[in-house]
Amino acid sequence: MPEKTGVGIVGAGFVAPFHIEALSRLGNIEVVAISDTVRELAQNVSSKYGIKKTFYNFDKMLRDEEIHVVHVCTPNYLHYEMVKKAVENHKHVVCEKPLAMNRVEAKDLVDMARSRGVVNAVSYNMRYYPMVQQAKAMIEDGEIGDIYLIHGTYLQDWLFFDTDYNWRVEAKLGGESRVIADIGTHWFDMVQHVSGRKIRKVMADFSTFIQVRKKTLKREALTFAAKGEVGEYEKVKVDTEDHGTVLLRFDGNTKGVFIGSQTCAGRKNYLTFEINGSKQSLRWCGEEPNKLWIGRRERENGEAQKDFNLLKPQSAAYAMSPGGLAEGYPDTFKNLLRNVYRTIITGKENRDFPTFIDGYEEIILVEAIMRSFKEGKWVDVV
Predict the structure, then answer these.
(1) Is 5-125 in CATH node 3.40.50.720?
(2) pTM
(3) What is the pLDDT of residues 271-311, one digit of tens each?
(4) At what angle do helices 16-24 and 329-346 cross, to 10 degrees?
(5) Between 20 and 30 A from 38 (CA), which of 145, 223, 240, 371?
(6) What are phi and psi of 277, to 5 degrees?
């Protein structure tokens, strides 16, 4: 690799700045280009972050020899073609989830990345909170005992009103599933990573509470009407779920349940998991990410605080700030990308980050959940 690793970002929307800012914290890496078909978006991002090249055509960006890694931050339906082109051009790739719109596309990308020998990652960043890593380390060290139950939530309210619109509500743009695929997969990835147990069977129930939404004609892509008011609008029929509840069976006879929704008033990003074992319980909440609750039967409950002097060595590596100083959502991107770029720069293979294989497996899981809801029965994840 050259002295400095060059990065191109495609997609200048919501998540791109998190990638750009995280990369700026790693050192010896430069975001040299941003690409988006919406010129105003691309220009705003390049100006704000001092990115020297702006492209309005993805193919042109791929031909830039300064770019060694491509981050795909576009809407879901564009992922497959863009990742495929990047891999064909021998670029390493970091793709926002989902990796593709279905398992056939995802498997194709897994095979292509393997055959071309490019480093590949999917942005399941939530597993990289320091206290989530601490929970994983405690389970690996046997402190929780046999795992009985894994349960939790991911609740939001940004689609609470019928005047809240986003391209994700339309299956043709975001995929057949919204809540489960968009936020549920973060939870599924996190708890499987922490527990070391794979989900093997699912039973699902969905709801679409708001079946027609009002898409304002004044703005594109992402709209919020905090007081439920818009001017001129067009009606959009919603063909994705507002809510999903999923019963789960993991390896080792562990049982679980997940509830996800984007229409829960007051819940912004209420991401939680609780793991109940034969020795202790653990609970983590994304709204208080620097704490880990420890539940006990025979003595008082406890609470672990984020402090790299007190954490287990494998989780302390993810806590950069001294104890008492918060680390949050942006830091998860930095921790994820640090692991990815360590492999890109050194050429040493490791499994310290979610790859295209993980993205493929998450799509298989979502498809099983969708099939379970449609058929009204337990479905194997295969």
Answers:
(1) yes
(2) 0.94
(3) 999 999 999 999 999 999 999 999 999 999 999 999 999 99
(4) 60
(5) 240
(6) -120, -175
User: CA dist 7 to 22, 50, 303, Å?
Assistant: 12, 13, 40
Cβ atoms < 10 Å from Cβ of 237: 10
- How is the chain split into domains, by residue range? 5-125, 128-321+361-375
The token duo for 284 is: 């983590």
CA–CA separation, 335 vs 185, rounded Å?
Answer: 19
120 CB-near residues (< 8 Å, 6+ apart): 87, 92, 93, 94, 95, 109, 113, 355, 356
Q: Considering only the top CATH level, what class is 128-321+361-375? A: alpha beta
In one letter, which amino acid is 185? T
The answer to whether the CB of 130 falls within 8 A of the CB of 332 is no
Q: Which of these, 98, 121, 189, lies nearest to 338 by C-alpha position?
A: 121
pLDDT single digits (tens) 69-81: 999 999 999 999 9
Alpha carbons 353 and 3: distance in angstroms, whole number: 23
* Contact between residue 150 and residue 256 where contact means Cβ atoms under 8 Å apart: yes
221: left (phi over 0), alpha (psi -120 to 50) or beta: left
